[in-house]
Amino acid sequence: MAIKLFNLEVRGALKCLTYECDALKSIQHRNLVRVLSLCSSINEFKALIFEFMPKGNLDTWLRQEYEINEDDLFSLEKRLSIAINVAEALEYLHHSCEPPIIHCDIKPSNILLDNNIIAHVGDFGLSGMLYENVNISLQDCS
């Protein structure tokens, strides 16, 4: 498991948790990080529990901060596979969710890798939902 803690003393943290929960509560896709649970106590502690991604995030791999062995080196085929995984996740969010979800923060540190180097998109704190009137609601969780 991986745990994302929300510091409730930071302005907007509770709002950010609400937006992330709204975005994640009804979506399931093989290339999205899976939420296992929400933990909270009244006004003291809030956390999301995610499926653990043992290979870390793509940013770490690209910067070669991860212990890489010969079998894990990024070949063109693996890089293309990661790009396809991310594209499939975004296609699902944009075209198969109701309302559609716009991630708004796709970057290497939000792309997590499982043991098989399959990419999973995570961190929906800045996500927005696209409603009928093409009104994109972007939230600032900083």
CATH homologous superfamily placement: Transferase(Phosphotransferase) domain 1
Strand arrangement within the widest β-sheet reads 1-3-2
> What would the CATH topology be?
Transferase(Phosphotransferase), domain 1
Order of helices and strands: EHEEHHEEEE
Indicate the low-confidence ranges by residue numbers: 131-142
Counting DSSP E segments of at least 2 residues, the number of strands comes to: 7
Radius of gyration from CA coordinates = 16 Å
**Share of helix among residues?**
25-40%
* CATH class term: Mainly Alpha
- Average pLDDT works out at 77
The tally of domains stands at 1
Shape type: globular
Give the percentage of residues in beta strands.
15-25%
Structural class: alpha+beta
| N/C terminus separation | 25 Å
Put simply, the count of helices is: 3
Characterize the biggest β-sheet: 3 strands, antiparallel
Second rung of CATH, namely the architecture: Orthogonal Bundle
